[in-house]
Write a structure and sequence with these properties.
The protein is an alpha+beta fold. It is about 35% helix and about 15% strand.
Length: about 190
């Protein structure tokens, strides 16, 4: 295994609202990366989490979308992984950071968006999932995946993020971070 080209040792703890883009083990994670590779998209990472806070014991907590619904996670393994990249270089105001963290907290318990997973898989093969809408249409999402939860929180707090909302993938976040698209996003 080779090291992620954009990885670097974590010198400081990431702040609230920082996106952690990482690589998870398992066959479903592999399928997400394979789907991105088949579309000739960045495919080294497959999961997105957003830093919420660091507690008094030094534990950094993030919030992430996952098959059981949006929930808390100790970010230690993500921060220690050679595969993890962040948008720590993205300028985000303190108010936006607080808002992003609060929005992610408000999403706790939100169900997983299996339709978005199916639509993404279909798109890999040039198919369209009938009836699937790729946007939240400005409403609070009733279902999210990890990457769309982060995109929603950023959009709600008027902070640059990958284009789209419900259809945002980890690959979109990887492109956004690696190319520092926040510099060109309005």
């Amino acid at each position: 295994m080779t090291q992620h080209p954009a990885s670097a040792p974590q010198a400081v703890q990431p702040q609230a609202g920082t996106v952690l883009l990482t690589r998870s083990p398992g066959w479903t994670a592999w399928l997400i990366r394979l789907g991105a590779a088949l579309r000739d998209r960045p495919n080294l990472d497959n999961h997105v989490a957003v830093v919420h806070h660091t507690d008094i014991h030094g534990t950094t907590w993030c919030i992430e979308g996952r098959p059981g619904g949006v929930g808390w996670r100790d970010a230690q393994h993500y921060l220690a992984s050679r595969w993890t990249i962040t948008n720590a270089a993205q300028p985000i105001t303190p108010q936006a950071r607080i808002g992003i963290a609060a929005t992610m907290r408000a999403l706790l318990g939100t169900a997983y968006d299996w339709d978005a997973i199916a639509a993404d898989a279909a798109q890999t093969f040039g198919l369209h999932l009938p009836g699937w809408e790729p946007t939240f249409r400005g409403t609070v999402p009733g279902h999210v995946v990890c990457s769309s939860a982060a995109a929603y929180a950023y959009a709600k707090n008027d902070t640059p993020h990958p284009t789209g909302d419900r259809a945002v993938t980890p690959s979109d976040w990887e492109t956004f971070i690696q190319t520092q698209q926040w510099e060109t996003t309005t």
